[in-house]
């Protein structure tokens, strides 16, 4: 249990709760859930420019990271096609992947196919089921993809001013504006309570909020004097109690609750909002192809990690279909903006390619 680990090292309840957010981020779990300690380890084990456990912002927004990867690939001769949905993986008579078929019927032939879509999309939608072992399909169907995350992107006409650290008179960002700000994290009991509400189908009455202001570090993201605020919130169930859908009324009611919480820490925040985009778990699934809205393509619980990700005997990026590889967050070592799964899968695919 994460709670036990934190109790061994720290006395301050706010500090323990703040650290605990990285153990439950993106996970339908509480600090008291067995195995939650690993998710914290997963988020602090890396490094940034030699600084262990450090995180950073991407200049130009997260889309700039995709553009950088695309530019590097294009420089090596890659051809990139966008807005071209894949219908299914093309298989030869020998059962080997030979490319993909697009929704418009176009066939794109290749000796190898790497998929960074989720295991569910890759194997349950894009791959002919008769080519997959039944026990493998069953295992993919059983992956826990529950997600507690509702992402809210906000545009504001001024920098939030927090009661605990009021803004400077010149309105310039202060050090805390350039960090991750955790709200409703005064103690781990609050996180557990928020989790419990969601497991019963109710959005948290006092949601866990991780607030970032990327424009405080990268002014080009917003007009002068304005800012963009990223709210990573939980817990929200994928399906509301009674089977109610996440309609506009439910979305706005939850967002209003989140904004009320922020207002208590930073009076005037609600009045500064000039636009917001609310992405509930079903929205994250529909827009980004995240199963259940899960940002990791599947829970980061101990039964879905290491040799069991995405399924036992298939953690090495190869799949039951020769020539088809899984390289996204659903593969080992799991989610996070680090590229480890893609790098490892590429090495395996290159090794096989040399043997063709």
Automatic annotation (TrEMBL):
Subcellular location: Mitochondrion matrix
Domain Amine oxidase, residue spans: 35-164
MF GO annotations: oxidoreductase activity
Principal localisation: mitochondrion
Subunit structure: Interacts with COX5B; this interaction may contribute to localize PYROXD2 to the inner face of the inner mitochondrial membrane.
Function: Probable oxidoreductase that may play a role as regulator of mitochondrial function.
Family classification: Belongs to the carotenoid/retinoid oxidoreductase family.
Protein name listed in UniProt: Pyridine nucleotide-disulfide oxidoreductase domain-containing protein 2
Originating organism: Nycticryphes semicollaris
Gene designation: Pyroxd2
